[in-house]
Every structure is written in structure tokens, then in C-alpha cells.
Amino acid sequence: VMLITMGVFWLLSIAMSIWMSRLTMRPILKSWGRQTEFVGNAAHELRTPLTIIQNKLELLLTKPNDKIIDQAESIAVANSESQRLQKLTQDLLALARSDSNTVQTNFESTQVANFLAYTVEPYTEIAASQGKQLELAPVEDFTATMDQNLIHQLMNILIDNAMKYSPQGSTITVSAKLTGRKWQLVVTDQGIGIKANERQRIFDRFYRVDSSRSRQTGGNGLGLSIANWIVSLHHGNIAVKANSPQGSQFVTTLPLNASTGLNRHDKSKD
Ligand code: ADP
Q: Rounded to an integer, what distance in angstroms lies between the CA atom of residue 201 and that of residue 197?
């Protein structure tokens, strides 16, 4: 009886220690799993443009005596794929910095109306060159604390997406308003819209609703996860809803004084 009791205790203590170690290991295993998935996705995204560039270069090498004009198609494709690689590596670096919390922030008191006028202006010309209209709605006079470079990057992502997923002849509107101790930056488009069941997932790394369409427009599925990170560095939030009668509306809500509690960035939201 004694031997059996000892054996049962022994088994129980082994079971307990396995269970305890699983509990302590779980977050480590989870983050390790996330890292592995991230590296896998990144490698996959890098491989496609690299393979295309390699194929095009090999094609060029098979016809060394052709004039450049006759090789223009291959050169143009290799060039656009190398631009895609450049954008991808920039985005991957931004996310790596967000994971290691090593980004240097520079929060400044900013006159929002001036800042928006200055940042939206260059995109107006790009939109016009694509047959689309970009408008900045009148903004009331208020100041907010922000890292201007990061908010500029956020606007770049939202406006770029609004243009990518909208047809010619449509209008994209940027507006901002005060809501108590917070302010909202709103980017509205009349484009293809996002189904309700996709609206949460589009902020996930590498997630694209339609990957072939996104690829055609130069997308890599990282823009909105970077946007989400920038917003969380400012202790704000970002959400998307449907625009009526068609399109999407991205609403970013930021505190007027975003510089407080700087180091409490919550990575679980990325
Ligand atoms: P991508 O580089 O593919 O655009 P993002 O992370 O910026 O990556 O966006 C993720 C996905 O969300 C896009 O692939 C697209 O399917 C969808 N999306 C983002 N913005 C819009 C928009 N304004 N209208 C419609 N779909 C959008």
C-alpha cells in the first residue's frame, strides 16, 4: 500500500511540475510561435519579388545583343519589383523596431490644421494624376501633442490605401475634429469597401482581403499593422467602418496629449 501511495504521489508531482512548466512556458512558446510565423511570412513575401527579378535578369542575359529598348518590359518589371522589395524591407524594419520597442519618439505640440494642410497637399497631386480627388475638410483651430513623423507615416498609409482601393472619379476626404480631450483623424473613401467580417483582421500583419488585387497595387499587408502600432504609441485607437453609400472610413482617435505613459505600448494589439 505504501509503495502504491508513494508511486501515486510521485506521478502526481511529475504531473504537477509538467503542468506548472507549461504555464510558465506558454507565453514564451506563444511569442516564439508568433516570431516564427512572422519570419516565415516575411521570407515568403521577399521571395516572390526576388524570384521575378531573377527570372527577368536571366532573360536579359540570354539576349545580350538586344537593344535596351527591346528589353524594356523585363527591365521595367525588375525595377518595379525592386521598388516593392524596398517598401517591404522598410515596413519590416518598422515592425522589428516596434517589437523591440527601440523607436525614438519625438512628441511635439502641433497645430493640427496647419500640419494636415502641409501633409495632405502632396497627395492631392498624386490623387489627381490617378483621376481621383483628395480633399481636406476645413479643420478647426486646436493643438495636439504628437510625433509628427509617425502621424505623417500613418496618414501616408491611410491615404495610400484609400487611393489604392478606390476607382477613378471618386473622392477621398481627410478630416479632423475635436472630441473632448481627444481628437479624431478621419480618412473616408468611396472605394471597394471592406466586409464587416474582415474589418478586424485587416490590422493583422500580412493580412490582405484579396491578395492578388493588393499585390497588383503594390500592397504587402503590413501597412495597417504599422498604422495600428503608431496609433498605440500615441495611446489612441483606430477603427474602420463602412462609408455610405460605398467605401470605407478609417477613424483614428488620439488623445490631445499623447506623450504621457510613453513606454506602456501594448504589443498584444499589433
Ligand atoms: P496592403 O499593403 O495590402 O494594402 P494593409 O495592411 O495596408 O496592406 O491593408 C490590409 C488590407 O486591408 C488590404 O490588403 C485591403 O484588402 C484592405 N484595405 C485597406 N485599406 C482599404 C480601403 N481603404 N478600402 C478597401 N480595402 C482596404
A: 8
